Structures are given as structure tokens and as C-alpha cells.
Amino acid sequence: MWEHFNIEPLDKKAQNFGYFNRIVRNMPGPRITLDQWKTLITVVESGGYALAAEQLHKSQSTLSYAIQQIQKLTGVEVFNIEGRKAVLTGAGRALYQRGKHLIEEAERIEQMAAELAQGWESEVKLAVEVTFPTWLLLECFTAFAEEHPQTRVELYESVLGGTSEALLQRRVDLAIGPSIPPGFLGEALMQVHFIPAASPRHPLHQLGRSLTLADLRGYCHLVVRESGARDTREMSFNAEQRWTLSTKATSIRAARMGLGFAWYPAENIREELDTGQLKPLPLRDGGDRYGTLYLMFADPDSARPGAKRLANIIRQAIRNKCPDEAAANTH
Questions:
Q1: Position 36 pLDDT exceeds 90
Q2: 84 pLDDT exceeds 80?
Q3: 249 Cβ contact partners less than 8 Å away, ≥ 6 residues apart
Q4: Does the residue 23 lie in any domain?
Q5: Is residue 44 part of a domain?
Q6: Which domain holds residue 235?
Q7: SS3 sequence, the chain?
Q8: Residue 28, in any domain of the structure
Q9: Nearest to 179 by CA among 290, 265, 292, 266
Q10: 178 partner at 20 to 30 Å CA-CA among 71, 167, 282, 311?
Q11: 95 within a domain of the structure (yes/no)
């Protein structure tokens, strides 16, 4: 570790709190206060001292003194006087931009501290079944990040038993999966509509008629590998050839290339269907299938604010963006 930072290791006598305390006391600290940086930012963004004084509820002379201190301590002229107007210099603009970042970071730190004081966790971990629409999940993460940018999100993209396993092993705070493991409570979150699909170039589409399951058995069936330690999948369809892939993205790409077919959640291939890259197979019987995804907390009684808020954002997003698939419409 010492070699990485190019720092000589301290001898045992020096390795004590008093030694480090003296180092900290002697380290140079920032000489310009956050209040002075905020003054500069407000003066620039309001267009002058008069409006800035109104916004900050201070006198113009107080603001002028703060700007003078910044110039004195940095040795940089912040403004040039052009006629009766003060204009930012090139160096002044650089200070303004860095100062703005500094104030924003200070505000984020204070927000994070306030959330931690209220019991808000620094990280939310969740397992989500791959049949959940990716685009919708990312929109939920975006909304959550806008509200709580200091809270990290760790996602486990799971398949079938992998979701239950993540809950049972307490690796996540909440999960969205197709079944509720013993000992847990879950709420029906949304209905998933599965449709069999393949590339328009696939031989099955060239038959020009309604298909049966027997027609499908002679072609490659694309499935996504279960993410749990053991395979709990019960195959309702056995094809002569099967490719087991690690991600749904790879499966969709393979189908687009005409390499096989699969039952996909309609929401997960919405773009491919709209652009004609994939086309539903005209199965006569057993084509459309339905499943329910459940929302589950690892421990509902002690769920923390971040996990609860993210769960609420997901619920609301489903009601707003996928009303036909919301749990109230499941059957």
C-alpha cells in the first residue's frame, strides 16, 4: 500500500494519534469560505451586486468585501470594469465555475448527512427478474437518483430461482420475482405477457400458416440461464435443440439474427416488434402466456426509507407507464 502512494511508512514511535493530530493541524486549509464562494456565484448569476444583495439579504458593501477577499486570497482579478458594468474575466469565469461545483457538492453532503441522520441507507440493493421491463426499471432508477443522488443502487438481474435465493441469503433489500419464497410476504406488482417471437427471416415464419407446438420442436429454442445455484425451471416445452444463454440481451440479439425463437415478455421486445426486427409466431394454441411478478422486501418490518421509496417509485411507474400490466388487471 505504501509503495502505491509513494509514502514512506512511519516508524512505530510515530504511529500514534498525537502525531497525526499535529499533521492535520499543520495542513493548510481552505482560506476562502463557502459563504464567499456563494457570494461570487450569486453576484454573477443575478447580474450585479444590487440584485445579489436582495437575494442574500446582505448589504452591497458586504458582498463587495467578499469579492475583494477572493481576489486578495487568490491573486486573481475576478471582474473587469467595462463602462459602468462589471464583466467576468477569463480567470474569474473559471473561479465561478469551480466555486459553483464546490457549493453544489457541499449541498449534496449536507443532504446526505440529513438523510443518514433520519436512518436513510447509503445503498439500496435489489434483485429484479429479467422479465421485468428494463426500460421501465432504468426510468425508476433515474427518478430515484434525482431525488436521492447520494444513495447508491446495486442491481442483481436474476432469473427464476435466483431472485428467491437473493432474498433467502439476505443479499438484497427488496426483490421483484415470479414467486414468493417460503417465509416471505409479497404483493402482486404486475402481469407479464409472454409472446413467442422470432426474426421475420426465421424458417417458422416462412411456413405461411398457423403453427403448432410440434412445428416449433424442430427449431432452436432460446432460454436464459437461471441465476440461482440450482435449476428450478420446469420446461413446459421441449425442443430438439436448445441454446441456454446468460442474459436476455444476448437471447434477443440471437433471435434478431434468426438463430432461434423464444417466449419473450412483450414489454422487453417492444422496440424490436415496432421496428420489425422480431415478429410474433402465429401459434394456433398455447402462444400467449401470462405470469405475475411480485414485489418482496427482505424484512418488511425493518425496511429502510431508501428501499421503501424505490419500491413506491416502481409501483407508481407501473401504474403510469404500463397500466394494462398493473397488478389490479392480472387474471
A1: no
A2: no
A3: none
A4: no
A5: yes
A6: 192-290
A7: CHHHHCCCCCCCCCCCHHHHHHHHHHCCCCCCCHHHHHHHHHHHHHCCHHHHHHHHCCCHHHHHHHHHHHHHHHCCCCEEEECCEEEECHHHHHHHHHHHHHHHHHHHHHHHHHHHHCCCCCEEEEEEECCCCHHHHHHHHHHHHHHCCCCEEEEEEECCHHHHHHHHCCCCCEEEECCCCCCCCEEEEEEEEEEEEECCCCHHHHHCCCECHHHHCCCEEEEECCCCCCCCCCCCCCCCEEEEECCHHHHHHHHHCCCCEEEEEHHHHHHHHHCCCCEECCECCCCCEEEEEEEEECCHHHCCHHHHHHHHHHHHHHHHHCHHHEHHHCC
A8: no
A9: 292
A10: 282
A11: yes
Query: Same domain, yes or no, for 206 and 254?
Result: yes
Let me know whether 196 and 286 are in one domain: yes
261 pLDDT higher than 90: yes
For the four alpha carbons of 287, 133, 200 and 202, in that order, the dihedral sign comes to negative
Which residue carries 398493473 as its cell? 326
pTM score > 0.85 for this model?
Answer: no
CATH number where 128 lies:
3.40.190.10
The structural domain count of the chain equals 3
Do residues 58 and 140 both lie within one domain? no
Output Rg (C-alpha) for the chain, integer angstroms: 30
Q: What is the mean pLDDT of the chain?
A: 82
CA dihedral for 242, 243, 249, 253, sign (positive or negative) = negative
278 and 202 part of one domain: yes
The CATH number covering residue 277 comes to 3.40.190.290
Nearest-angstrom CA–CA distance, 285 and 219: 18
Q: Is the pLDDT of residue 295 over 90?
A: yes
